[in-house]
Specification:
The complex is a heterodimer. Chain A is mainly α. Chain A has helices at 3-9, 28-40, 46-72, 87-111, 121-142, 146-153, 169-202, 206-216, 223-256, 268-294, 303-334, 337-348, 352-364, 372-375, 378-404, 420-443, 449-453. Chain A contains 17 helices and no strands. In chain A, helix 5 crosses helix 7 (169-202), helix 7 (169-202) packs across helix 8 and helix 12 (337-348) crosses helix 13. Chain A is globular. Chain B has two domains: 7-54 and 129-178, no CATH class; 57-122, no CATH class. The chains are: A mainly alpha, B alpha+beta.
């Protein structure tokens, strides 16, 4: 497809020189046309239709699984005593973790003035929102009756006078996740306003101009508006930074506050946050690599971006590896027979193959990222990201299931296996996520146009 | 040039940010105050040139954060201590450390909502109609052109002199902005 650009851009510069953040030769006009062109083009690519068709099919499967669940109850899932938290919680933690890289890129890297974030922040934010949507489905469905969950989860004044228990981390989680979704949505939304104005002004038909015109809300690029806009953007970044760290910390407290072997540890919050960012960057790469290839955007999402994401993945992967070792150490150091029992369950229990595959995926595979060759070869990076993503799902499976399946009394031990409805829901959310993401790419600028303009040398004022 | 119809102002178009900033500085030095620049991306120098340094978004954000924080904590206190105190494992009703996470989340939520909607409100958005869009070439202000508009409301504004002033700043063109 974009073989010419491939040759020009995807070649590594000589040793010691880093690839550029933006391909050479762009002007204010060309960046506008290239990014806006994806949205305004009348031609819908064949690959887009194919991917969306598959995603719609999987979304249908998700709806089928949900409809059957609502009809029959959570008994159709594999959860039972002693493993009362199965796929639903595993998938919830997995999806919400994936979302974290989006906010890290858009907020934390903005505060650190990392210019390279600009090409990838928009779709990483979209990824966050769509991933949090998938995550939110699972606890809601796990309640069995989502329409009643409203008053179980949120403080809604009812004649019954029943309120949520604010001393429980599960309620903290409701507030953390819903705030996270709202703030991510606001961040993404205000980032889109100037780009909607660009689309409005370059639209070729009246209908398209009207639609983007309404979304742009009359944005006209006034200096006074930009001034407030930039302040608001920085403030949101400053707010989102502690927020993103708090979200997965609170998720981890769902576990850490319980007196269950393997969960009841103080290092869970940083461990979970590192794991979340690890899987989030894996997802950013899994989306960025096909996107830049399919749409020929190699000069916007350059090897530099892939390398930097890979480095962040390596760094967070090392924290995760350290946490795995520490988990084992705590089990041994506690000298508590239930903690020791958990270590034994992981290494020699009925699910030990899960644990060893997890170690392969999350500790051994990311070590390949020490090599520049791996960091600079998109298809290998895609493969590594996929393995890491699988590993992070297994990590949550190991945390949730292995602490529960061997209860305190051996008479209460049991096994957990998912049912086809569990699997249909998990794969269905992947389809839903893909569907939302590709609709986003087609109808909204997937790369922030106005922020890319600020990277150009001609955008600077000369003295 | 005199027109019978009142106009919104005069708009000069520039093709690079440096020319725009120089023209804006010159306009400020010439005593014009009611003016604005229109750029395809945030240009700090342009805002400074026309004297738009400060804004009240941080204040709005702080108010939102305080309201969220107080609201969140009061909700927890009222529910857990006043309206329906329930003894769980002997924990105190007013378990303030356990109330911190929700208080924090509510503060962030309040601050974020206030920041975004406050920014939009201070900017007067959404705004369905604005005269600057009447200039045909203005659509490139969201692409690659830079505009300076001196508004007719400015006490120093006069069609002839202001046009002469803008033309002396080497613009691509100067156009009238009808209402």
């Amino acid at each position: 497809m974009a073989t010419k650009i491939d040759e020009e851009i995807d070649v590594l510069p000589p040793k010691g020189v880093r690839p550029p953040i933006l391909g050479p030769g762009h002007t204010l006009g060309t960046v506008t046309d290239r990014i806006g062109g994806i949205v305004l083009s009348k031609h819908t690519p064949i690959f887009w239709l194919m991917i969306v068709a598959i995603a719609v099919a999987l979304f249908g499967m998700l709806n089928t699984a949900i409809a059957y669940l609502l009809g029959r109850g959570v008994g159709i899932w594999g959860v039972n005593i002693p493993v009362g938290w199965g796929f639903a919680i595993v998938n919830f933690v997995w999806w919400i973790g994936i979302g974290h890289a989006g906010t890290l890129i858009s907020a934390i890297l903005l505060l650190f003035k990392q210019g390279w974030r600009t090409s990838i922040n928009r779709f990483a934010e979209a990824m966050t929102i769509f991933a949090v949507m998938q995550a939110g489905l699972f606890p809601l469905l796990h309640t069995g009756r989502p329409w009643l969950a409203a008053y179980w989860l949120f403080p809604i004044p009812l004649t019954m006078g029943v309120w949520p228990q604010f001393r429980s981390p599960l309620i903290w989680d409701v507030f953390a996740v819903s705030t996270y979704f709202t703030v991510s949505f606001l961040f993404w939304g205000i980032g889109l306003i100037p780009d909607f104005a660009t689309l409005r002004d370059s639209a070729k038909t009246l209908v398209v101009r009207r639609i983007y015109g309404m979304l742009a809300m009359g944005w006209r690029g006034s200096a006074r508006h930009w001034n407030r806009y930039e302040t608001a953007y920085m403030l949101l970044a400053g707010l989102a930074t502690p927020l993103v760290l708090s979200v997965h910390s609170v998720v981890s407290l769902d576990f850490a506050v319980a007196i269950v072997p393997g969960w009841h540890t103080t290092f869970f919050p940083p461990y979970f946050v590192a794991g979340a960012i690890f899987s989030g960057f894996a997802m950013v790469l899994m989306l960025a690599i096909p996107f830049r290839y399919l749409y020929g955007m190699q000069d916007f999402i350059t090897l530099r971006h892939l390398q930097n994401c890979a480095k962040l993945m390596l760094a967070t992967g090392m924290i995760v590896a350290y946490s795995y070792m520490f988990e084992m150490f705590i089990g041994w150091y506690s000298n508590d027979k239930f903690e020791l029992g958990l270590v034994h369950n992981r290494l020699h229990g009925p699910y030990s193959h899960f644990y060893f595959v997890l170690v392969f995926c999350n500790i051994i595979t990311p070590q390949s990222l020490w090599f520049n060759k791996v960091r600079s070869t998109p298809w290998i990076l895609f493969l590594v990201s996929t393995i890491v993503q699988t590993g992070m799902w297994l990590e949550r499976f190991v945390i949730v299931v292995l602490s529960l399946n061997r209860d305190f009394l051996p008479s209460s031990w049991g096994m957990y296996w998912w049912t086809k409805w569990d699997m249909m829901t998990l794969i269905g959310t992947m389809g839903f996520f893909t569907l939302l993401f590709f609709l986003f790419i087609r109808f909204m600028p997937a790369i922030s146009i106005f922020e890319i303009r600020t990277l150009l040398p001609q955008s600077k004022v000369k003295e | 040039m005199n027109t019978a119809e009142p106009i919104y102002g005069l708009m000069a178009e520039f093709d690079n940010p440096t020319a725009l900033v120089h023209a804006s500085e010159a306009a400020f030095a010439a005593g014009y105050r009611k003016m604005d620049t229109y750029t395809p991306y945030p240009l700090e120098e342009a805002a400074e040139a026309i004297g738009a340094h400060h804004n009240r978004v941080p204040l709005v954000c702080l108010i939102g954060a305080l309201l969220g924080m107080i609201g969140g904590y009061s909700l927890e206190y009222w529910v857990s201590v006043i309206n329906y105190p329930i003894n769980v494992g002997g924990k105190p009703f007013h378990a303030w450390p356990a109330f911190i996470p929700v208080t924090f989340e509510c503060a962030v939520l309040g601050a974020s909502l206030a920041t975004v909607f406050g920014m939009l409100a201070l900017n007067g958005l959404p705004q369905p109609y604005h005269p600057v869009f009447n200039v045909p070439s203005f659509s490139s202000s969201s692409r690659d052109k830079f505009f300076l508009c001196i508004e007719s409301q400015d006490p120093r504004f006069s069609s002839g002199d202001t046009r002469k002033f803008l033309e002396s700043q080497h613009p691509v063109q100067v156009s009238e902005v009808p209402y």
